[in-house]
Amino acid sequence: MRIAVCPGSFDPVTLGHLDVVGRATALADEVVLAVATNVGKKPLLDRGLRVALARDAVAHLPQVRVEPVDGLLVDFCRRIGATMLVKGLRSGADHDAETPMALMNRHLTGIETVFLPADPSVAHIASSLVKDVARHGGRIEDLVPPGVADAVRAALAGEGTR
Ligand code: PNS
């Protein structure tokens, strides 16, 4: 059984992530969306909420499950028997950021990363931009799965009171 892992911060999950996860189901029998920690980013949403929103977003995809990941991504992959990582690339900047991680993960355990070019219809969507648009009062409903926009706005409102 081929298991693919789609890793990320998912802060929040977007239609861009769903594009990649959906296409990854053609490459593996099972796809695990791994909600991990990026030490370079301070998340807006706590991890439990990121996991819950991602679970709702993939509920219609029977091959896909969502798991929180602590520690090294490659250790998680080894634990569940995953044979590949799958990531989307929107731009040259994504390529530059993702390639060292892909090579490091391969160095650590030999696991390969498959890059999928983002579909042009969602290539402009990034979680960071979604949050920025929402922070400035813009509409994000057509950038994220149902329910995510309200969760982002609620978290931003809470941030304002901190
Ligand atoms: O969505 P992001 O922030 O680009 O995802 C990056 C993420 C979370 C996949 C990466 O930071 C990661 O793999 N974190 C888990 C810890 C780990 O394995 N670090 C070494 C990466 S080479």
What is the N-to-C succession of helices and strands? Answer: EHEHEHEHEHH
Annotation, overall tally of beta strands? 5
Name of the CATH first level = Alpha Beta
* Low-confidence regions: none
Tell me the span between the first and last alpha carbons: 47 Å
What is the number of helical segments per DSSP (H or I, 4+ residues)? 6
Describe this structure in words.
This protein starts with a strand and ends with a helix. The longest helix has 18 residues, at 92-109. The chain has helices at residues 15-24, 47-57, 73-80, 92-109, 127-135, 148-161, and strands spanning 3-8, 30-35, 64-68, 84-89, 112-117. It has a single domain, classed as 3-Layer(aba) Sandwich (Rossmann fold). It is an alpha/beta fold. Helix 4 links the parallel strand 4 (84-89) and strand 5 (112-117). It is built from 6 helices and 5 strands; from the N terminus they run E-H-E-H-E-H-E-H-E-H-H. Helix content is 43%, strand content 18%. Strands 3-2-1-4-5 form a 5-stranded parallel beta sheet, sandwiched between helices. The radius of gyration is 15 Å and the shape is globular.
Name its key features.
single chain; 162 residues; alpha/beta; Rossmann fold; 5-stranded parallel β-sheet; globular; binds 4'-phosphopantetheine
